[in-house]
């Protein structure tokens, strides 16, 4: 298979970790006989420095000409004081909006090798945890009408039936491929947009009779995630609720450097990135954990290129390296072998 991939490392550790993801992809192409080519583009703070814009035209054009995007992370203290329309984060919203990446998949998995890092009691987590948060990414309050004057400000949460249908269908379809359990999260006791959300979910449920559907209000869902996370398999929800719940779910795994994400549009084109930020405190020091980005590459192989065997191989390689006790600083515990960003990337590539 021939594919061209846009690399958008961004700022801070984005540069360190995307390099390791490419190392692993290069190994995948050799092992499985594919041809992956890459072009690298600016976005975020580095793009502001170079062009004055967080998302330059050249980056958008290059991403449009590619089969998929791998993003590192954007932002840092250097650009924190800029006005909101030219801040690095604008690049993220711009890419999501421009490509219609409405479906954000965020798996929260506790690796058995890292179970000690989970902040919850062992009896709550049991054998492990594997939750998939399916978050709507291009609608809701982050994209609604907004405004402010000196004394007031407002943001609008609005959803159309079509926007709800397409993300909820993704939720049902993913649940069908897993344990056939779907929990829809809303705030239907208060919000009009959530009442519409719930009506659409209940109507679509008739088309997926094999999936056991439940509903939770978002405040209860936040509580249940720490009280009894094992009740969840797939969670489908709107943009802001998904943002908050997926961060909460990721923290339960205890390792922000381990968690990947995919942002997809209808035709399976996608942008893949770790869930963490640019970690300016450790940028360029060969300390950052590249595994979240490497697992994001695994998601790209699975969801955009349909290369299931290759995706499984990447995940198994990560597991093998953890089994062999190699750890970056963020997941290091006594008795393990501490390695840097580059060595971790090389070990995973070799394990492939
Ligand atoms: N998608 C994105 O690009 C994205 C997401 C979140 C934050 N940000 C931006 O990143 C910057 C820093 O934000 P923050 O500090 O709140 O969050 P962060 O995720 O960058 O860092 C939080 C903590 O986790 C550590 N950490 C993060 N990733 C790690 C990794 N791979 N390996 C080891 N340790 C890791 C950091 O060192 C830091 O101590 C801000 O400018 C923020 O706006 C960007």
Describe the structure.
α1 packs across α10. The longest helix has 19 residues. The two termini are 18 Å apart. β11 and β12 form a beta hairpin. Strands 2-1-3-12-11-4-5-10-8-9 form a 10-stranded mixed beta sheet, with helices on both faces. It has a two-stranded antiparallel sheet with strand order 6-7. It has 2 domains: 196 residues, Isopropylmalate Dehydrogenase; 134 residues, Isopropylmalate Dehydrogenase, CATH 3.40.718. The protein has 352 residues and is α/β, with parallel strands linked by helices. The radius of gyration is 20 Å and the shape is globular. It is built from 12 helices and 14 strands. Helix content is 41%, strand content 21%. It binds nicotinamide-adenine-dinucleotide. The site of nicotinamide-adenine-dinucleotide has 21 residues, from α4.
Structural class designation:
alpha/beta
Strand order of the largest sheet: 2-1-3-12-11-4-5-10-8-9
User: What would CATH call the homologous superfamily of the largest domain?
Assistant: Isopropylmalate Dehydrogenase
| Spans where pLDDT lies below 50 across 5 or more residues | none
Counted by DSSP, the helix tally is 12
Which CATH architecture of the largest domain is right? Answer: 3-Layer(aba) Sandwich
């Amino acid at each position: 298979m021939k594919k061209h991939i846009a690399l958008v490392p961004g700022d801070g550790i984005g540069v360190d970790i995307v390099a390791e993801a490419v190392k692993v992809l290069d190994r995948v192409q050799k092992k499985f006989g594919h041809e992956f080519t890459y072009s690298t583009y600016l976005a975020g703070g580095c793009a502001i420095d170079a062009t004055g814009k967080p998302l330059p035209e050249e980056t958008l054009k290059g991403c449009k000409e590619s089969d998929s995007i791998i993003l590192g992370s954007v932002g840092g203290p250097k650009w924190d004081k800029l006005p909101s329309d030219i801040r690095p984060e604008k690049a993220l919203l711009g890419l999501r909006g421009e490509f219609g990446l409405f479906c954000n998949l965020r798996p929260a998995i506790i690796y058995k090798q890292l179970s000690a890092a989970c902040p919850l009691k062992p009896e709550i987590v049991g054998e492990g945890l594997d939750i998939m948060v399916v978050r709507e990414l291009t609608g809701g309050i982050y994209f609604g009408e907004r405004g402010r004057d000196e004394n007031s400000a407002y943001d609008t949460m609005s959803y159309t039936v079509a926007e709800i249908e397409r993300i909820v269908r993704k939720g049902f379809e993913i649940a069908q491929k897993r344990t056939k359990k779907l929990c829809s999260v809303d705030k239907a006791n208060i919000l009009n947009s959530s009442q519409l959300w719930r009506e659409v979910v209940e109507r679509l449920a008739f088309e997926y009779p094999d999936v056991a559907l439940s509903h939770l209000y978002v405040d209860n869902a936040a509580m249940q995630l720490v009280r009894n996370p094992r009740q969840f398999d797939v969670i489908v929800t709107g943009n802001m609720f998904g943002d908050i719940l997926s961060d909460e779910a990721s923290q339960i795994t205890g390792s922000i450097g381990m968690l990947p994400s995919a942002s997809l549009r209808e035709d399976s084109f996608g942008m893949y990135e770790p869930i963490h930020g640019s970690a300016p405190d450790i940028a360029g020091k060969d300390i950052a954990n590249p595994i979240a980005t490497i697992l994001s590459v695994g998601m790209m192989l699975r969801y955009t290129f349909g290369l299931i065997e290759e995706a499984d191989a990447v995940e198994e390689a990560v597991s093998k390296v953890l089994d062999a006790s190699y750890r970056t600083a963020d997941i290091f515990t006594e008795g393990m072998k501490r390695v840097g960003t580059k060595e971790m990337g090389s070990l995973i590539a070799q394990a492939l």
